[in-house]
Structures are given as structure tokens and as C-alpha cells.
């Protein structure tokens, strides 16, 4: 006996917005890749779990050139989710889909200075305090130490710190701690509702997080190369 079609729920369509990073290579592409590699050395987790769009506007590429460009980015753990500005007919099987109509969200700041080599002298880390909420579409990037947010971190925003991240409100966006290669960094928040959390390059997206921690005060840290979540009221 087959189930009546009337008993099945109707198909539902829902829209959802995601914040993506747009990479726009400039010629000579080899020099552009050298700059990209330098950024990845300064902030290894910069692209962790981040949707990325490739903008080809202004580039003269063959299909072979484009295949090589996408392969080079994939080899750097930067998967491309869509392509803008490609000539008609260039995209096809084996390449990300064509995208258009995205709304610009402003420039994403990147670190200018390389991470210093370790020395025998201890240099105090510099902390950054954000005394206003982090709005959707906003990126806070501070690789010199901890970041403390006195308000909330909105969905569609992100905080990237070389040290630990402290959020005194709700964490609804992305929190990337230890981005300069610090496995001892931690993430603390009063209300745990993130899109993604990461420490030292290891990350978990919202779908991979235990729902028992949702909307709770939580600490995130690395234990034996795995992210561990702990309720703060059970850890003190």
C-alpha cells in the first residue's frame, strides 16, 4: 500500500544568506599566488570553513588556465564555491558554477606583518577589546593576541584572533582562535550559537556541533587534536 500523496508534507523552499570571501586574482598570477601564500602563513585558519568565490573579471584566461587556477587554490585548501566574471561558455563540468548578483559587503582586512619567529624573549601579547557588537558582514582580525567582544557576534560576522576569543554576549557568527598557530587558544562565550568555531586550523561548523550546548555558556578548546566543548558552569 502506497502512502497517499496528501499525507506527504509539501516541498518547501527557503532562502538563506551566507557571507563569502571573493578572491580576485590580478596579473601576474604567479606573484598573486606568492602574496596569497604569505597570507596563509600569517593566518593559517583564515580560509577555514569560509565560502569562497573566484572573480575572474579583468583576466584573460583559457579553460586550461582556469583549470590550473582552481587546482592551485584547491591544493591550498581553498575550495571555490562559485565563479564570477567568467567568459560565456568557459565554465562546464569539473568547474564550480557561475554566480552573479552578489551584494558587496566591503573589504576584509588582512594582516600586514608576518608572524615573528620564536625567540627566547617573551613578548606580551596585545589584546583587542571590542566594546560594541560585531555586526553581520563585519570581520574582526587581530593576530597579535586575544580578542574580547563585550557584546554579541552576529550571524554573518566573524572574529579571527591569534590568541583566545572572549564573547560576553551571544556568539552567532564565526570564531577563529589561535589563527597564528596557537593550539592553547580557547573560545569562551555567554551564549553558544555559532556558525563555525576553530582553533589552530581545526574547525567545526554549526551542523557538526552538539545541540546540547546551544544557547549555553561554553568554552571551546583543543584536546588531543580535537575540539572539546564544555559548559562553563560545569568547568569552574
UniProtKB/TrEMBL annotation:
Keywords: Cell cycle, Cell division, Septation. Residues 97-106 have a biased composition (Low complexity). Residues 87-120 are annotated as: Disordered. Pfam families: MinC_C. Gene3D superfamilies: 2.160.20.70, 3.30.70.260. It comes from the Bacteria. Residues 129-228 form the Septum formation inhibitor MinC C-terminal domain. Belongs to the MinC family. Cell division inhibitor that blocks the formation of polar Z ring septums. Rapidly oscillates between the poles of the cell to destabilize FtsZ filaments that have formed before they mature into polar Z rings. Prevents FtsZ polymerization. This is Probable septum site-determining protein MinC. It comes from Methylobacterium komagatae. The lineage of its organism: Bacteria, Pseudomonadati, Pseudomonadota, Alphaproteobacteria, Hyphomicrobiales. The gene is minC.
Amino acid at each position: 500500500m502506497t502512502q497517499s500523496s496528501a499525507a506527504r508534507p509539501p516541498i518547501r523552499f527557503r532562502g538563506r544568506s551566507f557571507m563569502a570571501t571573493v578572491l580576485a586574482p590580478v596579473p601576474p598570477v604567479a606573484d598573486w599566488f606568492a602574496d596569497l601564500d604569505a597570507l596563509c602563513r600569517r593566518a593559517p585558519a583564515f580560509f577555514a570553513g569560509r565560502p569562497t568565490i573566484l572573480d575572474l573579471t579583468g583576466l584573460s584566461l583559457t579553460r586550461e588556465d582556469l583549470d590550473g587556477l582552481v587546482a592551485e587554490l584547491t591544493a591550498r585548501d581553498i575550495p571555490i564555491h562559485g565563479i564570477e566574471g567568467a567568459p560565456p561558455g568557459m565554465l562546464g563540468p569539473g568547474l564550480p558554477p557561475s554566480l552573479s548578483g552578489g551584494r558587496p559587503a566591503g573589504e576584509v582586512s588582512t594582516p600586514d606583518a608576518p608572524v615573528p619567529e620564536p625567540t627566547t624573549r617573551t613578548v606580551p601579547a596585545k589584546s583587542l577589546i571590542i566594546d560594541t557588537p560585531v555586526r553581520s558582514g563585519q570581520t574582526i582580525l587581530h593576530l597579535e593576541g586575544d580578542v574580547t567582544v563585550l557584546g554579541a557576534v552576529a550571524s554573518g560576522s566573524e572574529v579571527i584572533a591569534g590568541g583566545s576569543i572572549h564573547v560576553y554576549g551571544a556568539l552567532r557568527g564565526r570564531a577563529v582562535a589561535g589563527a597564528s598557530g596557537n593550539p592553547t587558544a580557547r573560545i569562551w562565550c555567554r551564549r553558544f550559537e555559532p556558525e563555525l568555531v576553530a582553533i589552530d586550523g581545526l574547525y567545526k561548523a554549526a551542523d557538526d556541533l552538539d545541540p546540547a550546548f546551544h544557547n549555553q555558556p561554553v568554552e571551546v578548546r583543543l584536546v588531543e587534536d580535537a575540539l572539546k566543548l564544555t559548559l562553563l558552569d560545569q568547568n569552574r
